[in-house]
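for the writeup, i need someone to sanity check this before i put it in the appendix. the sequnce is what the collaborator sent (i think, or maybe the updated version? ugh). structure was predicted straight from it, no edits. if anything looks off just tell me and ill rerun, i have time this weekend
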Amino acid sequence: MSRADSLAASNASSSSQKSRRHSRLTRAQILKGLDILGPIDIPLPPTLPPSPPASRSPSPVPSSSKRKLPNDSEQSHSKKQRTSSFSEHTRHQSTPSSSSSHPQARSSATLSSRSDPAEDGELREEIPPQRDTNPLVSSNLPVRRPRRGHLSPGQCEELHTKYHNSGRALKYSGDTRLWSTFPHNHSHYRPLVNPPPATSPYHRHGNLFARIELLDALINFAYSIWINGYRGKRNAGWESIGGFLTWTKGKWEHNNSTDEREKAFLGLIFMVEAFIYGRMFALETSRINSANIELHNKLKKEAAASSAGPQLASTPAMLPSPVTNSANSTPTNPSRQDGTPPSGVNGPSATSRNAQPVSARPPPTTQSQSTSQITDLPETLTHLTPAPWLVERSRHTQFVHLAHKSMLASQQYLTLPIMAKHFPRTFARMMYSTLSATDEIEPDVEDEEGELFWPGQLITGEGIGWVCTMGKAMIKEFSRPFGYRGIDGVIPKPAQRAQ
């Protein structure tokens, strides 16, 4: 072997040894290389858009000797800023439990990340609008029923009879059941002929169901009277419901329950009372207004007649002609002391001179007459007020006062926030409704899914239909989980039991 061949072989062996030496790295070398790379963060999930790292330094701005145009500054201010950084996203993703347990800290961190300075070419992520994804609202949306329009007189009569009879049955059942809940030594205690079994909800919730039956009867009575007024009998029966309304209200007031739902039913009773009084004073107002106009016109005529009386009394009798020879006429002697000249002498006539006192009090002008028609009656005018007139005005004032008092009490227990909290289904049926205030006849009282409407202003005299439909919905939503069956669970009257 030559010297050259030996050198080549030695170089090849040394190079192979060096390659084998460099390919085998030690653990220390590997860790050192990893330290150079730095910590590796958890990558973002595929659902989020990638964001540039916050640690990246902003791009250097190239220096230019040219003057910056005004549009450049406007464009720089109009650029959108980035929303958040990569490190903050990874920090939130790495600690999901802590971020979920502290929503306020997460929101503050998000706000702070959105206040980072913007970089050239970066866009701020737009916040999507929040949508109402409340499952309670979505599951309680009302069903839009077909409009049935105006009811015929026969349909109104049928509804009036139906709910009047239902109210009587519920009233008897509520009173009988309530008396059976008193202690045995109480004077009002009356045992039931056929008491429900001990496992029945009517036995466990006897007092509550008795009061609900009384309230249900009140709603039925009010609706039957309202539907009767819808067909034309506008003022029939409202005063007949007053005694039973006071009885039912007393049973709910004396219960002293701390449950907000039961207090809401007390507010419902006050609302029914307020709207009934509102209906009554609205009807009285329309009737009294016509009587007031008639009386006002009568008093104006009396005032005009009394003002014209003194004018007619001050006017003297007409003097006779000077040429008339009469015992009651003025003589034509020129030597009279009154200076009356003879008929052939020129001068002012006696008639014109003696009429001067009449002209000293001029009649009222046209302007004063028109003013007396516009202004109120004179204060000096006296008129005897009949007793029925005072009774009607007193009733009207009393209705206004009672409606005001009842509505003040109602709004203490029954409001829209209370409806949303304890009666979410009824609340959603009113809030997501397409009905208006004039559609009182549209909803069915027994419907549990249709649209409703929050009662409007009682000053209009309307709204009792809305109060009744809302009250029915509240009763069903509250009492259905307890096992209340309404008219199907009443205690029958003795005559019905005999049949």
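The first helix runs from residue 3 to 23. The mean pLDDT is 74.
thx in advance!!
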